[in-house]
Amino acid sequence: MTWTVPNILTVMRLLAAPMIAVMFLYFTRPYADWFALILFISAAVTDYIDGYLAREWKQETKLGAMLDPIADKAMVVIALMVIVGYSSMSPWLVLPATFILFREVFVSGLREFLGDVAGTLKVTKLAKWKTTAQMVAISVLFAQGVFEHYFGMSVYGMDEAMVADILSGREEDVLGLWWKAAGMVWTGHVGMWLLWLAAALTLLSGADYLSKAMPHLKDEKP
Fold first, then answer.
1. Which residues contact 149 (CB under 8 A, 6 or more apart)?
2. Which candidate, 170, 96, 165, 102, places its Cα nearest to that of 133?
3. Is pTM, for the whole model, over 0.90?
4. CATH code where residue 119 lies
């Protein structure tokens, strides 16, 4: 193994993936949401940096080529598991998350079956857009959790009528309920639509990969 800087960054990103779930085991919310958001964004930025450095410094290795997609998938799968679990199983999040997880399992199984041939099927721009959309969608959804819990902490002890009066402007908004509620709503909607976009790109890239793999799946004629 060659422990170059890009490879070290990739390994750090891989180790950071399970830490997203651990944040919610050892920290209360919204602190867990903050830590998960910062960790996920840092990992997403690192994904770009390690690839860039590997190309610029001519340090592309087999170890990096093997670990990089694993780290990406681990980050996405674990983050989606946490988001769906803490969203009370909202069908608007469960369905696109299911599409994304199905594609990742399917393509991973296909790559394993193809063996050495899988290396000839290069990563496309569509796959890169898919990964970018997933990373952005998950980051926004983690941000939604931050807004949600700051809003919940601010309205603790208030009745619905008081909250409605403050949000409508009839009462003074000394706790900043309006911007917390607006942040919660907007990040929730934007994150959900981005996740559906990511799911669509995920399925398209999976179909593209399958079509390219089909010639290698045909049985030889006797």
1. 29, 30, 33
2. 96
3. no
4. 1.20.120
173 belongs to a structural domain:
yes
Can you give the pLDDT at residue 214? 84
Work out how many domains the chain is built from and give that number: 1
6-39 pLDDT, tens per residue? 888 888 889 888 999 998 888 888 888 899 899 9
Q: How far apart are CA 62 and CA 56, in angstroms?
A: 16
Structural domain boundaries, residue 91: 5-216
Q: Is residue 221 a part of any domain in this protein? A: no
